[in-house]
Specification:
The structure is a homotetramer. The first copy, chain A, is of the alpha+beta class. Chain A has one domain: 4-Layer Sandwich (Chorismate synthase, AroC fold). The first copy, chain A, contains eight helices and 19 strands. In chain A, the strands form six sheets. Chain A has a five-stranded antiparallel beta sheet, covered by helices on one side. A five-stranded antiparallel beta sheet of chain A has the order 10-9-11-17-12. In chain A, helix 1 crosses helix 8. The two termini of chain A are 38 Å apart. Chains A and B meet through strand 1, helix 2, helix 5, strand 12 and helix 6 of A and strand 1, helix 2, helix 5, strand 12 and helix 6 of B. Strand 12 of chain A pairs antiparallel with strand 12 of chain B, so a sheet runs across the interface.
Chain lengths: 361, 361, 361, 361
Amino acid sequence: MNNSFGSIFKITSFGESHGPAVGVVIDGCPADIVIDADKIQLDLNRRKPGQSVITTARNEADNFEVLSGIFAGKTTGAPITIIIKNKDARSKDYSHIADKYRPSHADYTYQKKYSNRDYRGGGRSSARITAGWVAAGAIAKQMIAQLGIRSMAYVSQVGNLSINKLYSTSALRVEEENELRCPDQEAAAKMIALIKEVKKAGDTIGGVVTGIISGVPVGLGEPVFNKLHAQLGKAMLNINAVKGFEYGSGFDGVKLRGSEHNDLFETTKQGLQTKTNFSGGIQGGISNGQDIYYRVAFKPVATIMTDQASVDKEGNPIIITGKGRHDPCVVPRAVPIVEAMGALVIADFVLMNQSTKLGSL
Amino acid sequence: MNNSFGSIFKITSFGESHGPAVGVVIDGCPADIVIDADKIQLDLNRRKPGQSVITTARNEADNFEVLSGIFAGKTTGAPITIIIKNKDARSKDYSHIADKYRPSHADYTYQKKYSNRDYRGGGRSSARITAGWVAAGAIAKQMIAQLGIRSMAYVSQVGNLSINKLYSTSALRVEEENELRCPDQEAAAKMIALIKEVKKAGDTIGGVVTGIISGVPVGLGEPVFNKLHAQLGKAMLNINAVKGFEYGSGFDGVKLRGSEHNDLFETTKQGLQTKTNFSGGIQGGISNGQDIYYRVAFKPVATIMTDQASVDKEGNPIIITGKGRHDPCVVPRAVPIVEAMGALVIADFVLMNQSTKLGSL
Amino acid sequence: MNNSFGSIFKITSFGESHGPAVGVVIDGCPADIVIDADKIQLDLNRRKPGQSVITTARNEADNFEVLSGIFAGKTTGAPITIIIKNKDARSKDYSHIADKYRPSHADYTYQKKYSNRDYRGGGRSSARITAGWVAAGAIAKQMIAQLGIRSMAYVSQVGNLSINKLYSTSALRVEEENELRCPDQEAAAKMIALIKEVKKAGDTIGGVVTGIISGVPVGLGEPVFNKLHAQLGKAMLNINAVKGFEYGSGFDGVKLRGSEHNDLFETTKQGLQTKTNFSGGIQGGISNGQDIYYRVAFKPVATIMTDQASVDKEGNPIIITGKGRHDPCVVPRAVPIVEAMGALVIADFVLMNQSTKLGSL
Amino acid sequence: MNNSFGSIFKITSFGESHGPAVGVVIDGCPADIVIDADKIQLDLNRRKPGQSVITTARNEADNFEVLSGIFAGKTTGAPITIIIKNKDARSKDYSHIADKYRPSHADYTYQKKYSNRDYRGGGRSSARITAGWVAAGAIAKQMIAQLGIRSMAYVSQVGNLSINKLYSTSALRVEEENELRCPDQEAAAKMIALIKEVKKAGDTIGGVVTGIISGVPVGLGEPVFNKLHAQLGKAMLNINAVKGFEYGSGFDGVKLRGSEHNDLFETTKQGLQTKTNFSGGIQGGISNGQDIYYRVAFKPVATIMTDQASVDKEGNPIIITGKGRHDPCVVPRAVPIVEAMGALVIADFVLMNQSTKLGSL
């Protein structure tokens, strides 16, 4: 099983929802990067459950511990290990599903593949493990910030309610203005109302998170099997509940003609720029210096509060009764995860790019 | 630069459009697989230029040579190297763009990243290098066919014309019924007319290819950073001109509620099945035995026959005049590439899965 | 920085000598392996300091905690994380060397490479991090034991005192008969006397550990860049203080003629065997079913109790005064490390070998 | 099967002795390195058969073709593919051993592992495939030469005849003074006489190649599982017929005391140096700026001209009769292979080291 992501700036994820801890090892972070621990906690807080009425009511502090790799406030070049202990475990909540397959969950596929499955709270398939990714992403963000690069994200769609305007990173604030993390206050109010309505019905709904990465220099990404957008897409598609990824013009770009879609170059005071950005900041798999933007589709959460017909391990028909505390819509808590994965991809390509030319000694 | 794809069944791509040859090394193919060379040529023919009036008029035979790894008609477990020599080079066609940046091409990003750029026909950024992938995919297809798995694809959208019906692999034929590779004859006729119209205008247009993989057993894919759909997405996003990837319900699934979107299990004569397949055959990153289906968005080809304003290496304004022979729409020739990449991903996961449990000696 | 080892059964090492913990993540261990925690502790005890008068007097319990990957006493296929907390830290012992370069230590090279160096107790360069490897090796040993494979080691040389007889794994006992872990009691007594004499002089001495792996089936290893002995050699050369590796006839085999050195095949009741085993159980990089044996050379420990001339970070001449508690000879404590690394290599090749042929579904 | 070596500067080897070609793909070579093709041919000539009376009488030109990755005389950053066609195939020479297991060859292990074995001339197990490595090494040498680094080697032992003096790279010349590639003319004469005597008897003999790498800056190598000497050892152990690797003081260093073995630092006009170099230029896995030296043990060639008892695929006793043209001792032709592998390792660590610190954009 491969639980690592990245080639130079590489993270290894571990942990289960109801084991002692979830965590991450970050290998390949350059030495001598000053780390502000508060920024790690800030992003963990943005991801944690129990933040607001539109997220799950589970309340977990998600405090982290650094086990290795940071000395005197700076990275040493050695692997950085961060763990987040699991406190609010309530294993008893899950005993009723040990032998049952919840629809559109990983229960069935895990059981068939591995036989010995930690079913408590989803075990390894729980979105809780993304806490480690977010912690690692907070390190990556601090590294790329030294180069003026920012990875940010926001909610751009809930159900069939969407905003079309693209926001730049300078227009977004980490101290979000609403609990949905949608920068359009008016649209946000409607989307929040929709989520509350869905929640009241014991149901769930999907959404879209838009990611934007600014300050990226020309040259990140590689031409063939390591195209910047391909690795970015893989990063996003690995997030729980994601069903699609598009960048730049995406699926809508299909409808355009080449003469409309081509991004014409022009020389400006800021150097070479493109007049439009259908390319989403990437041409031939390599960043061209324009903003990188992309959209990530999240399905409706599979856990609903109404009864569903299913089967147990023996194939007998059963009824799954919704229990526990779950998110009616994942997108508000997915925003810091999308940002983290975006930062991890960029951090890795920054380091990869440092070997494109032979340096001096 | 990373030109390899896959972890056990791994391919390494090499070659430039106007160098001596393009090719591929396939490492990790199991020993003792019977290889039918005709099937490799068949797929290369489906990808090659000059097939029909809706593709480029360049005519290349794309015959392949096997340099290693096959003995007595079967794989030996050693790396399989396949090359396709470049014949119709016409390097002179490209001298006029050596110092120019074509809009929405990789010229600018390659130049800035690598300095020494083979500009002839796109060099390393040319879609010609996918000939090697198709050859490798034809090997992967033969391997997975032994397990009853098929990777197929078809055109489902050109511009704003699309078909909504999903086709199963058993309804598709490799001996395609039309040059577009769209199984709906009526829709195909309209799409072909659109491409001809666009071509006549010296313009280009985008499209969507739908991929479908059938016969996949339960258990392929890995839970965290190697989710089956994430690697499939990465594979597709690495294909030239791709802007988006979605699987199962994709971006449209966002609009549904959990109670609509969940795929309910049922016990049938064929074993455990799901009543619907919004999951696209994958749950928690692991195949669940249902058909895997996905959609891949291709932008309009960047090379158009009309004049475009651009800049040269010094940033001076220039005019790019369309020349040469190019595709008005990539999707017909992209179909075998999508199939090949799908087969390569599955072949790799099949082998990875063989180490999930400890075998006997 | 790459802190991972292995390709399918892969470990990632983390931690510093005087940080909160050292540890390991084991990724790729097959699901459903029963794990006996006592066997992990047993090997950790064999490696820990303070075992006997011929090892360092530091006393650390080296108790481990499992953070993930084991459920209901068996592996789940998810990453297994094991940490060993650092208790007897005594950071003050090391403040005197923060700016000094100890001869033949990693102080100088780390400082120049990383700038921000955790100098306490060697930090990341401490042999203490091998505790994580030993824990991982204890998992690997339990996995390969299911196939009848054993990885064992013993001390075969201290200074210029050596034993020439080869011991089979069946002649070795994990409950070692002497604190040196040398199976020849008479030779052991002399070697122990030598170590005591060296220790009394405030000096240190080198030694050789012989490793033996039995029960290996034919077919582990790969022909070209993954030869079984090459990966085994890399594993051993990564152990702190190792200066050389040889397998089978090794450096002495150089002196023989082909007619003396060739291992002739013969058909026996146990199947095909070789009459001699100069090949050390490996031919063409692949195991041939005979015992695998190899020798690992350890230099004398660099920390000595007598004064040494050296320089500080500014290049000024200084005197390094021996302090603290150190091993006069590493080989007794190196035995479980050699065994662990041997087991990890074999576990990885066992899993790799499971993809040599295409299995059925 | 893994046929790649290296992590950033990575080569993939392919080909069989009697297939169409052997070759290599070099991925990750930085862009913009000027390549002198003559230097590639020079090293291929030093490795090729038929050079002198002490090597095999087979005569192969070993001319190479570059299929990709070099444009206008410089690397482009794209994969460089080099093939060497097989001309003097004489497949008929080998039909007599198709079903026979030659002692101490890879016949038996390949057959059992892969079933479908290319037995002609050893197929994939032939040392002929190292021609590709030598070509790749010649590229690596040209890259590291830009930094003042040289990887050289020479014969230091044949049978029981050895030279003890260490030679620096400045004392060695690529235009070797004798066909043995031993810099001590007097010793060389005796060694050559020994090889001729052994050859006359239809027998073979082992030897040792000493490698030396000069001009290496402080900081190459990584602390834990990527120690410079561990990767160097793996590189050498992957060369056909190698049985052992040691660096610096090696196996002899075991006999020394710490007070004798420690390399004391001193400040000189050339900066920090060590008074002795038992460390072999590497401390804690990282280069310390002193010369890196190491020794590689080669067993006697397994193919001898006298009859040997063996078995066939069915286990029946047979006689293997020596035929064909083979080397009585591999070390003269192994010298360029050792140099090449040394250069490849250093090139890779040079590039890895470029990501140790975060650069500016």
